[in-house]
Amino acid sequence: MNARRLIATTGIAALGIAALAGCGPAEQESDGVLTLWHYEGENSAMGIAWNRAIEIFEEETGATVAFEERSFEQIRQTASQVLNSDEAPDLLEYNKGNATAGLLASQGLLAPLDDAVAEYGWDETLASSLQTTARYDEDGVMGSGSWYGVPTYGEYVQFYYNAEMFDEYGVEVPTTLDELEDAMQAFVDEGITPLAEAAAEYPLGQLWYQLALTQADRQWVDDYQVYDNPVDFAGTEVTYATDTVADWVESGYISSDATGLAAEDAGTGFINGTYPMFFSGSWWYGRFLDEAQHDWSTFLFPETEMSPGSSGNLWVIPTTSGDPELAQEFIDITLRPEIQAIMGDNGGVPVAASPDDLTNDSSVELIENFNTLLDQDGLAFYPDWPTPTFYDELNAGLQGLLNGSLSPQQMNEQIGSDYEAGLPASAGSSTP
Which first-to-last residue range defines the signal peptide (predicted)? Predict the structure, then answer.
């Protein structure tokens, strides 16, 4: 789930991080109001936890939080312009990754947080595997350099399944890829499309990437994400993913109507029982707990150790923030065990909670799956991260595949060219 628009920077990319490293926004007198943006739903795990954090923040600081909920797409489409203006908030949630937080950091639009990290000990609080998306070098590539964001939750992609529909049609929870296809075929035989999907936004792209991961190793992920080596878009990983999506559409596992559907359409289709399965992120978990009227559960994609996932999105402080110190205090509150436990109890994936503080048994499976991925180095990030425009380009390729305007080979050639065109100059070339 990620951003993707390349803005001309006329030299800022070269100068921004070097000029700002180790320091934050210019200090100025606080007005006692922290302007805060995020795009988590009120009944989501993060929304519930952060609402409590706002209460604690206001009680302890005497300051006021002016919160504005902005949609993911609103922030995605306007971040570079807004953060370069006097309309920027003091603190906001923003997507992690090279094409998003990395891009804004390279443009000098995000304040480096190294001093705050040292003061609050966030590097001790967060596992090293979760720090990758918090740090960016001068080119905006994640994994090294200064801290430009702070994650307060984890996330990963998994299967959600309607347990009542599985029982009704005698379908077993699959543990192999063959069993997964058998399960989907069983629903097709009953006239039911098994997978809730959306190609206008991120869900289908994440499924495509997961299929590539079944053929990949960690080196391929590093090549794809952080440019260790060129990526062959005619290679086994990409061709298997694209061919399998095409096969699943032809088999009726995925509806060709998904071309015009958004993530919300797929998610609500699972909630209302139209589809028995939905492959998407842990960020849906709390909402499904709250809204789904049927019994449901989850499982990791079978026969692979890697899954799309990472730390959650980041708290970032714009360089134009009028209250960076208040913003840092709020970030620290969201990492307290009390707030982390609230997140976990409401279907989130906490990164700093004590298990003894959790009271909701329903969240145990979610957290156990995440820990399984952590233990096997299984967080493989997301498919659109490598370039600022690849989110839209991958979606366009998959839409062409679904509607028949692109063959699998043509899609791979198209997205391979798009990928290479968007790489930073330091990355070298891929093989489309």
Answer: 1-21
